[in-house]
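Appendix B, example 12.
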Amino acid sequence: MSKLWTLFRHPARIILLASAVIFFVQRDASAPGLFEDRVRAYTREIEFVHESWMLDALQIKAGQI
């Protein structure tokens, strides 16, 4: 049994190391391909939200009355 373990111990380490490297190097998500998708990802934080703009405008108008 000991000789059998020494034969498989080295390949098992290689397989374990390779799977750990693959696990930690993989990407979270794929990169967007279209230009519009990349622009939207860049401007996502500053997009215009119509609902909040309307509520702010109503609050300002109510304060002016």
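Residues 2-25 form the longest helix (24 residues). The chain is about 75% helix and 0% strand.
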